[in-house]
């Protein structure tokens, strides 16, 4: 596809996160598309600048400290101390190159960057600072923002972006929420020695994960000193001489910092969606199975979508690269998501992919569920990291269709089996895969 009309671009992206830039890079590499991208903030969006990359950089010393604790007296003497300020400084150092590097590769692939806040004017036009940019197709990839609590004193609450820039270690931290961000940041802070209150809205956390594993994770956080309180509804925040009081239906929690981790809402306001007729609600922009909105020339991708798969970086990448194939006429098929893995980067981690344990247990006529204790896995014993459980799910013909694990290496374990599920590798063919030994992938394959 090339410009065949009076529009300036073939494709104009609104936003430059993974929901946009991976697809734009691939489209630009084809060489015959005119592409523009509008970004109001840092190029690369949430994940590189204030999401996954920043978070995992902060988690590195956390994992290392747990590993050193496990190896005490087994070749390691002394428990390292996390230097909070230095950890945050290192996180900033490793992510600061990302927006520049992403913009450089976009430009090298022919993408024209337009810096500023964009708003739709009509089905083919985005206005930025008074200038109109036109395109055959527009992709809305504006991401999501932190959910605000509507309580008195909400202005004293901090969000995940603030946490990732918090250079002074809180003595006591209160976290509201029980999703990914709440438990991951609780794990980071508690390991560094901060006293953490983790306030769950319900009687559990991480509701999309296998609950016995979540209960085990919460118990391990309690063992590290985290004060977990269930069924909490926040009511008001008050500033005190030493910090803040969070008043709730379960009493008052005093701490020097409060993290509001109650979810993220799609960025749909002030984009001109109503004016142009793009349908959306509080769950996000509505699209058909080709990621096309109610306005045929406008598509949407990433966290801003109303979608059933997780609001994750890999799903945003998958959507933006699907759109590239669609625009390049390399496919006309509906989007079909592969099995989407997800991990909670706590210590221990929980990760899962494919058919869930609950689904499998509800349908014993279709699935076989195999539970494995990892205590005896030799490689993990050598790492002294053999506390954990894995559950593998097979269909009646013996094909692997799902897996979930809790362990310090659950992310690596689940990552190692994805092709078996996605490519429907039969039990015999699995023997054709030679793994590296000894590694987590060889240990994991032993359980299949
Ligand atoms: C703390 C945190 C940790 C996370 N950890 C993980 C993880 O470990 N693994 C994982 O898979 N996912 C993780 N995620 C989720 C992941 O970051 C998102 O799913 C992903 O970044 C979504 O990409 P996106 O392109 O849809 O949106 P974004 O990356 O948010 O990009 C949207 C962009 O659009 C821009 N924009 C918005 N409106 C306009 C406008 N009108 N004009 C111009 N520009 C505009 C914004 O400035 C932004 O740059 C995490 C998220 C957070 C917040
Ligand atoms: N490891 C990862 O893949 C990862 C890590 C971090 C974030 N993310 C993504 O970032 C997004 C945001 O993560 P999150 O953890 O903020 O959201 P989430 O939706 O996972 O969790 C929100 C939590 O807030 C609670 N909550 C909602 N309203 C509340 C209220 N009024 N009072 C108290 N608690 C309330 C919910 O019960 C839930 O536990 C998600 O889309 C997630 O997919 C992913």
TrEMBL record:
Residues 340-445 form the Pyridine nucleotide-disulphide oxidoreductase dimerisation domain. Keywords: FAD, Flavoprotein, NAD, Nucleotide-binding. It holds the Pfam family Pyr_redox_dim. Disulfide bonds join 47-52. The keyword Signal does not apply. NAD(+) binds at residues 177-184, 263. Residues 9-318 form the FAD/NAD(P)-binding domain. FAD binds at residues 118, 303. The keyword Nucleus does not apply. Belongs to the class-I pyridine nucleotide-disulfide oxidoreductase family. This is Glutathione reductase. It comes from Fructilactobacillus florum 8D. The lineage of its organism: Bacteria, Bacillati, Bacillota, Bacilli, Lactobacillales.
């Amino acid at each position: 596809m090339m410009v065949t009309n009076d529009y300036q671009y073939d494709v104009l992206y609104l936003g430059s996160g993974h929901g946009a830039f991976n697809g734009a890079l691939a489209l630009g590499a084809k060489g015959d598309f005119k592409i523009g991208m509008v970004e109001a903030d840092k190029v690369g969006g949430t994940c590189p600048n204030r999401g996954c990359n920043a978070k995992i950089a902060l988690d590195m010393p956390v994992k290392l400290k747990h590993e050193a604790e496990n190896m005490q007296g087994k070749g390691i003497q002394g428990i390292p101390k996390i230097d909070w300020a230095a950890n945050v400084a290192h996180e900033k150092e490793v992510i600061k190159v990302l927006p520049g590097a992403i913009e450089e590769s976009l430009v090298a692939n022919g993408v024209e960057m337009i810096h500023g806040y964009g708003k739709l004017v009509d089905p083919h036009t985005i206005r930025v600072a008074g200038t109109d940019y036109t395109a055959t197709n527009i992709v809305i990839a504006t991401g999501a923002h932190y959910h605000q609590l509507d309580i008195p004193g909400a202005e004293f609450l901090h969000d995940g972006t603030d946490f990732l820039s918090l250079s002074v270690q809180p003595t006591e931290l209160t976290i509201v929420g029980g999703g990914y961000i709440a438990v991951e940041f609780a794990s980071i802070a508690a390991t560094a020695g901060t006293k953490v209150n983790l306030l769950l809205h319900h009687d559990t956390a991480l509701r999309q994960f296998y609950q016995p594993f979540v209960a085990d994770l919460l118990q391990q956080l309690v063992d590290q000193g985290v004060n977990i309180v269930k069924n909490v509804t926040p009511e008001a925040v008050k500033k005190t001489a030493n910090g803040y009081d969070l008043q709730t239906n379960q009493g008052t929690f005093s701490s020097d910092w409060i993290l509001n981790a109650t979810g993220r809402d799609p960025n749909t306001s002030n984009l001109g969606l109503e004016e142009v007729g793009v349908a959306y609600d509080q769950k996000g922009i509505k699209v058909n199975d080709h990621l096309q909105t109610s306005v045929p020339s406008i598509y949407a991708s990433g966290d801003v979508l109303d979608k059933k798969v997780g609001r994750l970086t890999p799903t945003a990448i998958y959507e933006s690269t699907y759109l590239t194939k669609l625009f390049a006429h390399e496919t006309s098929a509906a989007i079909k998501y592969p099995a989407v893995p997800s991990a909670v980067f706590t210590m221990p981690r929980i990760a899962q992919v494919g058919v869930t344990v609950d689904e499998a247990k509800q349908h014993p006529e279709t699935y076989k569920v195999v539970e494995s204790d990892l205590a005896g896995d030799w490689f993990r014993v050598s790492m002294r990291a053999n506390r954990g459980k894995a559950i593998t799910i097979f269909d009646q013909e013996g094909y692997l269709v799902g897996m979930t694990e809790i362990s310090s290496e659950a992310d690596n374990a689940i990552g190692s089996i994805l092709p078996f599920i996605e490519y429907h590798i039969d039990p015999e063919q699995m023997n054709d895969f030679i793994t590296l030994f000894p590694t987590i992938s060889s240990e994991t394959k032993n359980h299949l």
